[in-house]
Specification:
67% of the residues lie in helices and 2% in strands. The protein has twelve helices and two strands. The radius of gyration is 42 Å and the shape is globular.
Length: 316
C-alpha cells in the first residue's frame, strides 16, 4: 500500500469534496471548499519532482480555460450554481497529478502495456454500453462518449506517456460518476452547436485530457523557447563589443627614451635638497625651455635616431 498511498488519498478526497459541494448553498462556502482543494493539491504536489509540479500547475491554468469555454461559453455541461466553482481548477490539478505519478508505480513497472490494454478494454466496454444497454436505463444515448474513444485509444496505445492517460481514465471516471450523481454538474442531453447526444456523464470523456495534456506540453515548450530567445537578445544587447586592446605598461624614466636636459635635472636636485629659490627656478626654467626647443629641432632633423648628447646652456 505504501507506493499507492498518495493515489489512494486523492481517490478518497475526490468523492468527499464532491459530496461537500452538493451540500453547499452559497458561493462563499464554495470558496472555502476551493481553498481547501488548492491546499490539498499543493501538499500532494510536493511529493512530485519539480518538473511534474510545473506541469501540474500549468494544467490548472490550461484546464481552467477549457472549463470556461466548455461550461460558460459552449454550455455542454452546467454546474449546479451556474458558475465555475473554485474547486474545479485545483480539481483538474489533482487529476493530472494522479496521472503523472502513475508511471512510477510498481503496477505499471511490473506489467507495462498490459495495464493500458486493460484500461482500454474497460473504456471500450463503457462506450459500447452507452450506445446499447445504458440508454434503456438512463434514457441517454451516449454518442459523445463513444466519439472520445478513438482519441483516447490512440494516445493510450501510441504515446510514451500512456501511464498518464490510463490513470486519468480511472480518476476521471470516478469524479464524473460521483459528480453527476451528487448533482454537482450535469451534461446536456444534446450538446449545443454539434447536436451530438451525450450521456450523463459521457463514457470516455477522459479522452479530453489527451487534448489538455498536449496543450500543457505546448504551453511549456513555447514558454521555454520564448524565454531562451528573450534571454539571448538581452545578452547580445548588453554584451560589450570587442575593440582594440590597449596595453599600458609602466616604464622607468631612464628607459622611456625621453630627453631630459641637465638643467632640468639640476632643478629636481635643488628641490630635493631644499636649496630651491625663485631666482634659480626662473633661470633653470628658461634654460630648460631653450634646451627643449633645441632638442626638438634636432629630433625633427633626425627622425630615425634619438640624440641623447647633453645640450649646453645658452644663458649668457
Amino acid at each position: 500500500m505504501q507506493p499507492y498511498w498518495l493515489h489512494a488519498y486523492l481517490l478518497v478526497y475526490t468523492p468527499i469534496g464532491l459530496f461537500a459541494d452538493s451540500r453547499v448553498t452559497t458561493q462563499w462556502q464554495q470558496y472555502v471548499l476551493g481553498a481547501l482543494t488548492f491546499t490539498v493539491l499543493y501538499l500532494a504536489a510536493l511529493k512530485a519532482p519539480k518538473e511534474q509540479r510545473v506541469q501540474v500547475w500549468t494544467c490548472v491554468v490550461v484546464a481552467t480555460c477549457f472549463e470556461i469555454f466548455g461550461s460558460l461559453v459552449w454550455g455542454v455541461y452546467r454546474y449546479r450554481l451556474h458558475n465555475l466553482p473554485l474547486f474545479v481548477p485545483p480539481g483538474h490539478g489533482i487529476v493530472y497529478l494522479f496521472g503523472l505519478l502513475a508511471a512510477q508505480t510498481p503496477l505499471v513497472k511490473r506489467h507495462g502495456r498490459r495495464v493500458a490494454y486493460a484500461v482500454l478494454a474497460g473504456a471500450g466496454t463503457w462506450a459500447v454500453l452507452g450506445l446499447t444497454a445504458l440508454p434503456i436505463v438512463t434514457g441517454r444515448f451516449d454518442l459523445q462518449g463513444a466519439l472520445c474513444l478513438p482519441v483516447f485509444a490512440y494516445f493510450l496505445l501510441r504515446s510514451p506517456r500512456w501511464p498518464l492517460f490510463a490513470a486519468i481514465f480511472i480518476i476521471v471516471s470516478e469524479l464524473e460518476i460521483f459528480g453527476t450523481s451528487f448533482g454537482d454538474w450535469a451534461w446536456m442531453p444534446v450538446a449545443p452547436w454539434t447536436h451530438i447526444p451525450s450521456g450523463n456523464p459521457p463514457s470516455v470523456i477522459a479522452g479530453g485530457y489527451c487534448v489538455i495534456d498536449a496543450s500543457v506540453l505546448a504551453v511549456l515548450w513555447v514558454y521555454r523557447e520564448g524565454l531562451k530567445t528573450i534571454m539571448a537578445r538581452i545578452t547580445s544587447t548588453i554584451r560589450p563589443k570587442a575593440g582594440p586592446r590597449i596595453l599600458l605598461r609602466r616604464e622607468s624614466r631612464s628607459n622611456s627614451g625621453e630627453l631630459v636636459s641637465p638643467e632640468s635635472t639640476s632643478l629636481i636636485r635643488l628641490r630635493s635638497s631644499g636649496e630651491y629659490s625663485p631666482a634659480a627656478s626662473t633661470t633653470t626654467t628658461a634654460n630648460s625651455t631653450s634646451a627643449t626647443m633645441i632638442q626638438s629641432d634636432v629630433i625633427d632633423q633626425c627622425p630615425t635616431k634619438i640624440i641623447t648628447s647633453p645640450v649646453r646652456s645658452t644663458t649668457p
